[in-house]
Design a protein that fits this description.
heterodimer, A: 69 residues, 5 helices, 2 strands, B: 150 residues
Chain lengths: 69, 150
């Protein structure tokens, strides 16, 4: 599953640590989500999408494979 | 009660408490066991301090040691515990089987471990809702829609 977390974060010029603090998760979890190694729970997926002002299906695309996986 | 203890201190205090109780058991045993008891207290203190230091690190192990794990780290911990449980069960099964085969007297503690683990597993299924499934609400075909003219 592809996601746009890294893309949105870099657009907003945020570090992974800043995003992690804003979402209430660890920096390691943000790294895992961005690399596609971890699929967040539904509540966390909504939190991420709302944080960037997008819908969940815009943020996470099940039809696209993660690059490099 | 845990809410009054700082998250970073919870695991080290748990280790210190459990280790002190175990060391106390050795001390109560009498004889020369008090020496082992003192060595155990020292080991437990070192372990508790090491856990406290690790809890300050910015990584998954640190988050788990410091009781501040997020959902992914909790999942990691849960899966690791499940793996540990599987290994313990295999070890207990080997223990009881070998114990019975060689006519040893020490086979039954392994059986107790297996029985307790199986009971805990069933308790978990019950507590986490396996037996509380709601009935499906889509049984049977829907009645056909009636025409307004009929």
């Amino acid at each position: 599953m592809r996601n746009r977390v890294r893309e949105q974060r870099t657009q907003q010029e945020m570090s992974q640590a800043e995003l992690a603090a804003a979402l209430g998760v660890s920096r390691q979890t943000v790294i895992s989500i961005e690399s596609g190694r971890y699929l967040p729970s539904l509540p966390l997926a909504f939190t991420i999408a709302r944080f960037f002002g997008l819908t969940v299906d815009k943020m996470f695309d099940p039809d696209e494979e993660e690059a490099g996986t | 009660m845990m809410a009054f203890i700082r998250p970073r201190l919870r695991k080290p205090l748990g280790i210190a408490l459990a280790g002190t109780v175990f060391a106390g058991a050795w001390a109560l045993r009498g004889g020369d066991a008090w020496q082992l008891s003192i060595a155990m207290v020292v080991t437990v203190l070192v372990s508790a301090i090491t856990t406290y230091v690790r809890a300050g690190e910015d990584n998954d192990e640190g988050a788990l040691a410091g009781s501040r794990a997020d959902e992914r780290q909790k999942l990691l911990s849960l899966r690791s515990r499940a793996l540990g449980w599987n290994f313990a069960m295999v070890a207990a099964f080997i223990g009881v089987t070998v114990g019975v085969a060689v006519k040893a007297t020490w086979w039954w503690p392994f059986l107790v471990i297996l029985a307790v683990a199986d009971f805990a597993y069933l308790l978990g299924l019950s507590n986490y809702g396996v037996a509380q499934e709601d009935p499906a609400d889509d049984v049977g075909p829907r009645p056909p829609a009636r025409s307004p003219a009929s």
